[in-house]
Amino acid sequence: MRIFLIVALFYIPAFAAVHPGSDEFVKRAVEDNGLQENEVRALLDSAEYKQSIVDAISRPAEGKPWYQYRSIFLTDQRVKEGIAFWRDNQALIEKAAKQFSVDEEIIVAIIGVETFYGRITGNYRTIDALVTLGFYYPQNLSSDRSPFFSRELMHYIKLASEEGLPAAEVMGSYAGAMGMGQFMPSSYREYAVDFDDDGHRDLWRSTPDAVGSVANYLHRHGWQAGQPVTQRVFASSDAAFGEISNSNFMPTLSVAQWKEKGFSPSTEMSPDLAAAVVKMSEKDRKTYWMTFKNFYVITRYNRSPLYAMAVYELSQQIKEGMDNS
Q1: What is the distance between the alpha carbons of residues 131 and 148, in angstroms, rounded to a whole number?
Q2: Is 114 a catalytic residue?
Q3: Exposed site from 45, 57, 100, 190, fewest CB < 10 Å?
Q4: pLDDT given at position 17
């Protein structure tokens, strides 16, 4: 019998909530996904609506301007602990980077931004997070992401069965992300790897699995080892500012084409290299950056360009610390 079912059966909630839309969800779980109705209902009954989760999704850090967002993640302590994490796991990180063709410092920086190197992996029950956001997503936000979280809830139930996880007890972020690398359930199922070869993919307690899974995620999304991520550019007064995208960071024009549009890299770049341009808000000015395929890959981990820039800058500071130590 699945572990999560055993937990669900012996977990008696203070009240059995009937979540709006739960009957339709259970129907899809059974008819489209081959899950057992009683197991799904028992798990949903154990879930609790959390207003704090709704509050958190309504004011994400990514809504801040760059100079404020940057100050959250680019700290002396995060750099110092990143260097220590890399040193403590140097052979492991080198192995993962080589096997998956990913740059070592990026693996370290993602784990640093996501969970402070595994120290902060979330204090919400994952089932509460996914049920709250799948069934009670706030209507006052610009877009309704409840279908996304409903799909993640379905993936989570499958993941719990596949990995033998106690689904009513697993802890994660307010958005349902889990483990050292903060994988959503669909990403866990698709990209997590058993890098320590113990027969399980454990992103909470196995540093090898966490490191290998982050590296595999980047690899599967097309990371190009040793290639640039981003480069500061200078914009002329008549630059094509209207062609800068706020949401699509896939490189579509060459460096040479962007130069013709008024954006010149601060250092020499191959004119044929595919690039995009993003804008960052400093405290008293705007800065512009040419971004490349690897920047786009980081935004597959988190869609925000602020996140990708924070990962990159943290990675460079950690790498500099390693090189100088």
Answers
A1: 11
A2: yes
A3: 190
A4: 60
DSSP code string of 71-100: HHH--HHHHHHHHHHHHHTHHHHHHHHHHH
Could you read off the pLDDT of 73-132 as tens digits, one per residue? 999 999 999 999 999 999 999 999 999 999 999 999 999 999 999 999 999 999 999 999
104, 220 contact by CB (below 8 A): no
**What was the pLDDT predicted at 140?**
84
Residue 117 to residue 153: CA distance in whole angstroms: 26
Nearest residue to 190 (alpha-carbon basis) of 164, 151, 216: 216
State the Cα torsion 55-61-64-65 to the nearest 10°.
Answer: -170
**Which residue carries 């097309």 as its tokens?**
222
Q: Which residues pair with 286 in a beta bridge?
A: 281
Which tokens is 255 given?
């460096």
Domain 3-46+122-178 has CATH 1.10.8.350: yes
Kindly list the domain boundaries of the chain, sorted by start residue. 3-46+122-178
Active-site annotation holder among 39, 104, 105, 114: 114
Separation in Å, CA 6 to CA 1, 9, 164, 242: 7, 5, 10, 56
Q: First and final CA of the chain: distance in angstroms?
A: 52
Question: What is the Cα–Cα distance from 258 to 273, expressed in whole angstroms?
Answer: 10
Q: Mark residue 75 as left, alpha or beta (left: phi above 0; alpha: psi -120 to 50; beta: remaining).
A: beta
